[in-house]
TrEMBL record:
Membrane topology of this protein: Multi-pass membrane protein
InterPro entries the record matches: Diverse_Substrate_Transporter, EamA_dom, EmrE-like
Naturally occurring in which organism (per UniProt): Crenobacter cavernae
Location in or out of the cell: Cell membrane
Origin: domain of life: Bacteria
PANTHER family: EAMA DOMAIN-CONTAINING PROTEIN (PTHR42920:SF5), OS03G0707200 PROTEIN-RELATED (PTHR42920)
EamA domain mapped to chain residues: 20-158, 173-308
Annotated Pfam families: EamA
Name of protein: DMT family transporter
Residues that span the membrane, as ranges: 21-41, 53-74, 86-106, 118-135, 142-159, 171-192, 204-227, 233-254, 266-285, 291-308
Key words, A-Z: Cell membrane, Membrane, Transmembrane, Transmembrane helix
């Protein structure tokens, strides 16, 4: 084989890998965006937040257990973690995947899927604020301008829903729950930086997920009764679909996307999330889609994108 032919082959192969990376990133965005849709479907058939969350985690448990088992073969990135560091991992699991998920599911009982997704999408702004207040990190004025832009977008979307619900108090309750979910996830992200270096990404993801599953099941055992799970088959189907297509597979797809196109590009594709949720909520749930909502989504996405670029 000639040198020219041997040189041409990798180019084509790498181009194909890059395309697959974007496909994986889009699939991950679609999967994460569909979570609120599956939750809303479950609610329409009589489920409430705690049973819906418990079913999601039960269906996802075998996959998380396999992830933890597979992570055993991964070399430790540094010295074995201390007992204190294992304790940090435990709290990260509670904050990132237990409390954040619980608050989110509670909020979805009161707000639209579109508003929920836009509110959750503000987590980078909370990471900035918490890092500034508690870690002393400093950011340029352009970053804070982008934060203001994102919150202006949420203000528009919230005002749209507030008018549509005739100033309903339930809307305030729902947004408060989702905001608490966003804050909990932001705290998890801040704390996971050092833990990632100690445990590595595969172990950190698998172990924190298992902590969250255990916490959710303990919560369900204490806060629900068997009658709460006498639900139509559609609820179980929605929970299973959410466990597979909005929990397990998107994590895998995102990891593959990051490996092939890098974290920056994968994150850029992830900005499709609010748009995808709004489109699915309109098509599948019959939620409204107004000019204010679209404008609000555009401002939120623009603010988050500008934050990402400024930080890089």
């Amino acid at each position: 084989m000639s040198d020219s032919c041997s040189a041409a082959a990798p180019v084509g192969r790498f181009a194909f890998v890059s395309e697959k990376g974007f496909v994986y990133a889009v699939l991950a965005a679609v999967g994460f965006s569909a979570k609120a849709i599956f939750v809303k479907i479950g609610y329409r058939y009589g489920a409430t937040a705690e049973p819906m969350l418990a079913l999601r985690m039960v269906f996802a448990l075998p996959f998380f257990a396999y992830m933890a088992y597979a992570a055993r073969a991964t070399p430790w990135p540094a010295a074995r973690p201390t007992l204190k560091q294992w304790g940090v991992l435990f709290w990260l699991g509670l904050m990132g995947y237990y409390l954040s998920s619980l608050f989110d599911f509670l909020g979805l009982q009161y707000v639209t899927a579109a508003l929920e997704r836009l509110t959750l999408f503000l987590y980078p702004t909370l990471v900035l604020m918490l890092s500034h207040v508690f870690l002393g990190k400093r950011y340029p004025r352009a970053v804070w301008g982008a934060v203001a832009l994102a919150y202006a977008g949420i203000g528009l979307a919230f005002w749209n829903d507030l008018v549509a619900t005739q100033m309903s108090g339930d809307l305030w309750t729902g947004v408060a729950w989702v905001a608490a979910s966003t804050l909990s996830y932001a705290i998890y992200l801040i704390g996971s930086g050092e833990a990632m270096g100690r445990f590595g990404a595969p172990r950190l993801t698998a172990y924190t997920m298992l902590v969250a599953v255990a916490a959710v099941l303990i919560h369900a055992a204490a806060g629900t009764v068997p009658a709460d799970y006498r639900l139509p088959w559609q609820v179980y189907a929605a929970a299973l679909a959410m466990a597979l297509f909005s929990t397990v597979l998107p994590v895998r797809w995102l990891n593959l996307a990051i490996r092939q196109i890098g974290a920056g590009r994968a994150a850029s594709v992830g900005t499709l999330g609010p748009v995808l949720t709004m489109a699915m909520a309109w098509a599948l749930l019959g939620e409204s889609l107004s000019v204010l909502q679209v404008a609000g989504a555009a401002l939120v996405i623009a603010g988050v994108v500008l934050i990402g670029r400024a930080k890089r």
